[in-house]
Amino acid sequence: GLFALALLLSFTSNRSQIATVESALATLNAPGDADAQLRALHELTREMSRLDYRREHGEPWYLRFGLSQNDALLAVLWPRYTQINNRLMRDVAAKHLEQQLAAFVALPAGSPERAARAAEAHAQLKAYLMMARPEKADPQFLTRVLAGEQAERPGVTPGLWQALSPNLWAFYAQHLAAHPDWRTETQPSLVAQARQVLLGQLGQRNGMATLYQQVIDRASNNFAAMTLQDMVGETDAATLFDTPNSVPGVFTRQAWENQVSKAIDEVAEARREEIDWVLSDQQGTLDSELQPEVLKARLTERYFQAFSDAWLTFLNSLRWRKADNLSDAISQLTLLSDVRQSPLIALMNTLAYQGKTETRGEALSDSLMKSAQQLLDRDKQPMIDQQAAGPRGPLDATFGPVLALLGKDKSVAATGDNLSLQAFLTRVTRVRLKLQQITTASDPQAMTQALAQTVFQGKSVDLTDTLDYGSLIAASLGAQWNGFGHNLFVQPLNQAWEGVLQPAALSLNRQWQRAIVGNWQRAFEGRYPFAATGSDASLPMLGQMIRGDTGRIDQFISSQLGGVLRKEGNRWVPDSGNSQGLRFNPQFLEAVNQLSDLADILYTDGGMGMSFELRAKPVRSVVETTLILDGVTLEYFNQMESWKPFNWPGGTYRPGVSLSWTSLKGGARLFADHSGTWGLIRLLEQARVTALDSSDTLFELVLTAPDKLPLTWHLRTELGNGPLALLQLRG
């Protein structure tokens, strides 16, 4: 009786299960109501999930007793589900993905929309290809993309679609890999276009960037940042140079050898970017960096580039401590050149160690092969081996100059001309001893000034020679080491030189005041054209001051500053190669060169004076003009225009200038009468001057008479502005 009851229960339960399935299938096969079909498909997938679970884990006891149809029913339902799901879900989704990808491909190249949609399009392409390649299916990813692609389905109630579609897509995605027959057909041309566009947007760099960042992030937590104190050990760097920065611990030799190198090896062998099969059917031709050897090389290259950048950023941030006076500068040089306590030596040794990270020597087999080749082709061998004999490393391009400075770069042949840290420190020691002699002398100020004056006169001394040597070292390190080279090899000597220069510059300024400024003021103060007075300045005395080569100003500069100023043509300019930090007031140089230009005009033929020509111009209502300059008369009375030559100053005992004019409305009247050598300049001061050509040798002069008539002449000079140049002396 109990067994019969169990059979009856089993029969009833199985029959109910079959009836549920048949009802769902009937609804799905009936045309019309999309909502009903969606519910039926959802019910069908629930029953199939239940059947599949029971197939794997066993059926409930009440379905057994020999009447179970679980496996048979599931086998029958799979083909039916495939047909119905393809029609209601899969094919519609595939078509939608094709439309989305086509729209993405059609976006203009370089447009913001294309860049913004790249990630979404990549996910769409990946889902599209998963549907066509079931073996690549990722259920979780595929469910998320398909469920998110269509928030609504035409003909289906939105709320119903949003409630049921995620479960339908999850069932489809979960079983896709086990049913290769569910694969869809793709459009090859669309796939190729989408891949090409995505490669342009994403590029293989994304894959490498992600892997690289993973390596760096893991290693960063295990190695502390390296500070300046870590690099110089027990030496006192703070006295000489300092920086608030540090080198990230991941970019040290310890990090490379203990973790980063191994991590890159693991990534190169174990990891494959998931975009490789999505963006190309042939892995080897698309993402070469995803191949273990190439990926390792590129990750290593990127790491050592960042390694170099980190160290360069740190080293270029070093700043030399400012010395308050010459004694402090000498103390710094003492510590700098101490072979046992120098922080610079300790720092350079650290750089040499770090710079040889991953340095490998030439393999024995390569060396033997190279030697054999040289023996066979002895006549063809160059005099200088083109291949460096020393070991090479990935940091050679960056740290090579530092290694060469230390004599540890075997690829650089040793010669007497090589710059070296040892030679630099030896020179610094000589400078320090010389400066100590000065500071301990009976008259330190006099010795300091004498040393500076030697340099000003163009002679070399140990201090400036060593400064030049330090500048050569800084330059030899290259532009990428610019801050480091300047602060550690130039600035120490600069400060010492400034300690010598400051008192010497004050002394030089006092000499200039006594020799030039004082005499100038005594000769010209309160006199025209330097002041608006009736007393004229002595023209011969002006010549003594400004004349080229023999004038007092030129002689002072040549004798006292000949080593730091040089003449280019008639103009004094700082000698950039020998100025040694001496900064000249731009206004001083401008004034000196202005006087030099004037001297060229005044002394064209060696003697003092200049020649020029004047031509009177007709003016309405003006009958006659008479100009008398140093005894030479230019009279104009409505005749043909002509040029009249003049010399200034003229050879007369009564120099001066007078100008009169006659108009239609009045008789002859005097416009101006200026006696003295500077009379011409006083008259020109009243004129409105206009240049008539680009050569600045032809000018129009207009003097407005009291009756408002514009008395006009043309002035033609032999050199420059002629007499107009003297107007620059006013005031």
Label this structure with key terms.
731 residues; alpha+beta; 13 strands; elongated
Structure description:
Residues 503-606 form the Type VI secretion system component TssM1 helical domain. This is Type VI secretion protein VasK. It is a single chain. With 731 residues, the protein is of the alpha+beta class. It has 5 domains: 2-201, no CATH class; 204-317, no CATH class; 322-350 and 397-518, no CATH class; 525-592, no CATH class; 610-729, Sandwich (Jelly Rolls). The chain has 25 helices and 13 strands. The strands form 4 sheets. A 5-stranded antiparallel sheet has the order 8-5-13-12-11, with helices on one face. It has a 4-stranded antiparallel sheet with strand order 7-6-9-10. β11 (688-691) and β12 (698-704) form a beta hairpin. It is elongated and about 140 Å long. Residues 1-14, 61-67 and 381-389 have low confidence and may be disordered.
Q: What would a concise description of this structure say?
A:
Residues 612-718 form the Type VI secretion system IcmF C-terminal domain. Residues 503-606 form the Type VI secretion system component TssM1 helical domain. The protein is α+β, with helices and mostly antiparallel strands and 731 residues long.
Structural class: alpha+beta
**How many angstroms separate the termini?**
137 Å
Spatial ordering of strands, largest sheet: 8-5-13-12-11
Report the portion of residues in β strands.
Answer: 5-15%
Counted up, domains total 5
Question: How is the topology of this model organized?
Answer:
Blueprint: H1 2-29, H2 34-57, H3 70-106, H4 112-132, H5 139-149, H6 158-176, H7 188-201, H8 205-220, H9 228-232, E1 241-242, H10 253-270, H11 275-279, H12 283-286, H13 292-316, E2 319-320, H14 326-336, H15 343-355, H16 364-376, H17 396-405, H18 421-439, H19 444-456, H20 462-477, H21 482-524, H22 539-546, H23 552-561, E3 565-568, E4 571-574, H24 586-602, E5 610-616, E6 622-629, E7 632-636, E8 644-648, E9 656-663, E10 668-675, H25 679-685, E11 688-691, E12 698-704, E13 710-717
Antiparallel strand pairs: 1-2, 3-4, 5-8, 5-13, 6-7, 6-9, 9-10, 11-12, 12-13
Helix pairs in contact: 1-2, 1-3, 2-3, 2-6, 3-4, 3-7, 4-5, 4-7, 5-6, 8-10, 10-13, 14-18, 14-21, 15-17, 18-20, 19-21, 20-21, 21-23
